[in-house]
Design brief:
Order of helices and strands: HHHHHHHHHHHEEHHHHH
Number of strands: 2
Shape: elongated
Helix content: 55-70%
Oligomer: single chain
Distance between the termini: 77 Å
Structural class: mainly alpha
Largest sheet: 2 strands, antiparallel
Length: 356
């Protein structure tokens, strides 16, 4: 890709200032001085995407990519695969960057609004003010702002693990299972989210949390449809509230996939949660419930342990609640030890059978 950028510079497709940013020879502050965009590496990633994907210039850049890599066709998949290492180069030392590279190489942020349509990066020095301005314009229907927020929020979501190729390609029935309620690619998910007020607000919230890099600043959930939930009418763009009236945090990829298409998510969850046949023996049913309960408890404990790193021990709830859970787990273990089969009992059974 560096040779592609050099050819683009020689042909006058990009300016010397843009080339310096693309070549990775300047830091965030110098990037701001050269281009006027906020001094944060998220915008360094966005510059790569704006140059290669935006407007009429995308066709010329596609031609250079095809020439450099010997491609007969430069579609979104091929472009995203080549673009991923350069776009995320400022994050190359980040833990788990391999997962982000896979997601970005699977179409990344290249939605219809981003791909070969005119859009620009908003200039400014204060990151939060720039992001708020982009959101306001996107909600007002400005196409360029929608594309810009898709790129910034989508890139942040991929980097922070809220959009992946790995988990997003699986079907699951549990929010904390590390999967998603239905199959979707990163680019398709972003395409759907960018078409709703709630989706745009979540992308904005993810971007703000990413640049803040503060455990106290977490991305929030918003409704993406006008619909009725538990007898309450909610509107696209309104906050998702819990029973205590607090806005719900985006913790998993599940949250974004569910929000993108609630009806499809519910249908898939129902399909995967079908009740067992009536002929299932009661002891078999109870063992299945016991096993699934233990698995769910372990997955929830591990998920809370991961959140503990950024949000502290409070994620587990009140100390009395934790003590009660530990006591219940101890009771379950005692029941299994007291009444469940042991290896010794199995050996005795075998001996008895052999003696007959």
């Amino acid at each position: 890709m560096q040779r592609v950028y050099r050819h683009a510079l020689r042909e006058g497709r990009i300016s010397p200032e843009v080339y310096r940013v693309l070549s990775g020879t300047v830091g965030a502050q110098e990037m701001h001085d050269l281009l006027g965009v906020p001094a944060h590496r998220l915008w360094a990633a966005a510059v790569h995407q704006q140059v290669l994907l935006s407007g009429p210039g995308a066709n010329a850049m596609n031609r250079l990519v095809k020439q450099e890599f010997g491609m007969a066709k430069a579609d979104r998949q091929r472009i995203s695969e080549r673009l991923a290492p350069m776009t995320l180069s400022a994050y190359r030392s980040q833990e788990g960057i391999e997962q982000a590279l896979r997601a970005f190489g699977n179409g990344g942020t290249i939605t219809d609004r981003v791909w070969k349509q005119p859009w620009n990066l908003t200039r400014g020095s204060e990151v939060s003010e720039v992001l708020d301005d982009i959101l306001d314009r996107a909600l007002a229907g400005e196409a360029s702002a929608v594309a810009e927020l898709t790129v910034l929020g989508g890139t942040a979501a991929i980097l922070d693990g809220y959009i992946t190729r790995d988990r997003g390609s699986k079907e699951g029935i549990d929010r904390g299972s590390g999967s998603a309620p239905f199959r979707t690619t990163p680019v398709n998910l972003l395409d759907v989210l960018s078409k709703t007020a709630g989706g745009l607000r979540m992308l904005h919230s993810i971007a703000r949390a990413h640049v803040a890099a503060d455990p106290a600043v977490l991305p929030k959930q918003f409704h993406t449809q006008d619909r009725e939930i538990d007898g309450q009418l909610v509107r696209d763009g309104e906050r998702v509230l819990d029973k205590a009236g607090e806005q719900v945090i985006i913790d998993y990829e599940w949250d974004l996939v569910y929000a993108a298409d609630p009806a499809r998510a519910l249908a898939t969850i129902a399909k995967n949660s079908r009740e067992p046949l009536e002929t299932e023996a009661e002891d078999v049913r109870q063992r299945r419930l016991l096993a699934s309960g233990v698995v769910s408890a372990l997955e929830a404990a591990r998920a809370l342990a991961r959140m503990h790193k950024s949000r502290g021990p409070g994620v587990f709830g009140h100390v009395d609640t934790v003590d009660e859970l530990r006591e219940q787990l101890r009771q379950a273990e005692e029941i299994l030890l007291r009444f469940g089969p042991s290896r010794t009992s199995f050996l005795l059974d075998e001996d008895e059978e052999g003696g007959e």
